[in-house]
Amino acid sequence: MKNYTQVYVKNSYEAAEIYCKAFGAEITREFKNAEDTAYEHCELSVNGEGFLALAEAKNPCDIEVVHKNKWETMTFNVFEMGTEAAVHQAFQVLSEGGVVLEPIGELPWSSCCATVIDKFGVCWWISI
Known about the structure:
- The structure is a single chain.
- The chain has helices spanning 12-23, 63-69, 84-95, and strands spanning 5-9, 26-32, 39-46, 49-56, 75-78, 99-107, 110-117, 123-127.
- The chain is α/β, with parallel strands linked by helices.
- It has two domains: 5-56, Signal recognition particle alu RNA binding heterodimer, srp9/1 (2-Layer Sandwich); 63-127, Signal recognition particle alu RNA binding heterodimer, srp9/1 (2-Layer Sandwich).
- β6 (99-107) and β7 (110-117) form a beta hairpin.
- The chain is globular and about 50 Å long.
- The relative contact order is 0.19.
């Protein structure tokens, strides 16, 4: 069984670029809308493994409200990132324009982790 996480965001082209930068991913499949302004579907992979699918949100949420209230309707857990440097890279990229819920630190179950809601309203828990 294959499991892809799918997110729906406003500004899907920018989101794909940011997620590639944050996680060292690459776009492996893409379907753009007729106007070439957004993704109808886009798949990202890391080291050849499917990581994330995304598409343009038809009815995007109000990001300012999400950030102000620090809403976490769902958190994507990205763990076993390999190194603290990888966690720091993802944290730096995802926190730009976002809201940090938990800065990089240590927990009993992880020596290096953080939680951030990115500029698209997607909540990430990242860890080695």
